[in-house]
Design brief:
This protein has 94 residues and is an all-alpha fold. The chain contains 4 helices and no strands. The protein has one domain. The radius of gyration is 17 Å and the shape is globular.
Length: 94
Amino acid sequence: MVSKKIQGNPDLKHISTSLVERHNLTMRMQLRRFTRLTNVFSKKLENLKASLALYFAHYNFMRIHNTLRMTLAMQAGIANDIWTWQDILPYEAN
């Protein structure tokens, strides 16, 4: 893993940790892997990474957010429509 320093000139009036903390809470509540006293945890780092990838794909590309009335990817101009699980996991069971 390579660390990369990123710096800029943010407007100090708009710096807030509340959005990050809210997203951390949402992720902890949605993914039982991050709640305390649970038996649903990843024994392998690979499984944790896969679980997080699915969560973020769903959160950003599939979930319609109430305040936006669209997905976050659509708001950012990355996607034109709401994705389905077939778009993310194009596996066909026979």
